[in-house]
Amino acid sequence: MTLTNAVQFSVPADVPANKRSLYEANFQLITKGTGNLALFAGDQKVEHLNDDFFGTTKQGPIAEDDNDPEHLFRIAQQGVVGCFASQLGLVARYGPNYSDVPYLVKVNSKTHLIGTSIGDPRSRDWVTVDQVVSLREAGLNIVGVGYTVYPGSQYEAEQMAGAAQLCYEAHREGLLTVLWVYPRGKAVPDERNPHLIAGCAGLAATLGADFCKVNYPKVSEGSVAEAFREAAKAAGRTRLITAGGEGTDVESFLQTLHDQIFISGAAGSATGRNIHQKPLAEAVRMTKAISSITYGGSSVQDALAVYEGTRDFSI
Length: 315
Fold this sequence. Notes:
By secondary structure, the protein is α/β, with parallel strands linked by helices. The chain contains 13 helices and 10 strands. Helix 10 (250-264) runs parallel beside helix 12 and helix 10 runs antiparallel to helix 13.
C-alpha cells in the first residue's frame, strides 16, 4: 500500500549540528516519512493501574494476554507502529528481547487514584534524559521521550518548566518529544472544550514539543471534527495527535481517526486500550488498520478490511 506523500519538516534550532542526522532519522522512522504518527501507548500500566489490563469493559472481556506486560512488547514488535511508549522500567526489563522496536520513554507519570475532587493532578519526573539515553547506549532503539502537563492544575508551573527542559535536553540528544497535554484540575470546568484544547496545543508548541497528544474535544452542536481544526492550527509546526480513549467498536474508532486526520488536520493518534485489550493476533491487525489510515491514507472500509484480515498493510 502506498504511503501518504512525504513531508518536509524543520529541525529545531536546539538540535545541535552533531545530532541533526539522528533527529532526522528518528523523525523519519516514527512517521514513516509522512509526518504522521501512530503511537502505541503502554503508559497506562501506571496511569490506570490494572483497570485497563484485567477484567471487563463496555466492549466485553479484556483479553487474558493483556495482564502480562510482555503482551505490549509482542504487539509493538509484530504490529505496525511508529513507536511504543512506556516507562523506563518496562523498557529496560523487556526491551533487550525486543530491541528492534522504536521506544519512546515516558519521563513522568502518576496513577488515577487521586481524583480532582481530592487534589489537582501533579505528575513528577521519574527519570532524566541522561538516564533514558543510557538505554540507547545499551543497544535499545530509543527515539524519543514523553511528558504529561496538566494546564489548570495548581502545579502547572512546575510541570510546564519540566516539559520545557525535557524538550530542550531531548533535542540536544537527537531525540523527539511528545507532550501529553490535558487541561485538568479544580480550575477546569470542561476538559473537552475545543477552544481550551486548542490552547493546550499552542502551549505544547511554546514548550518545544515535536508532537502534542490531546483528548478529542466534545461539542454540543455541529461537527467535532470541524471544531478540532482550531487545535490543529494552534499547534503550528508541533504535530497534533489524539488520545485513543477507552475501548470502542473498531469501525467507529477508525472513522473517528480518519476524521481527525483528514477533516481536522491532526497528524495521527496515540492509541493504547483499543489495541492492547485485544488478543495478540487481533491487536496486531488493529495496529495495521490504524497505520493504514495514518501512514497509508486508507479509507475507513479499507482499514476495516485490514483489521478483519481480508487485506494486509505493511511498511
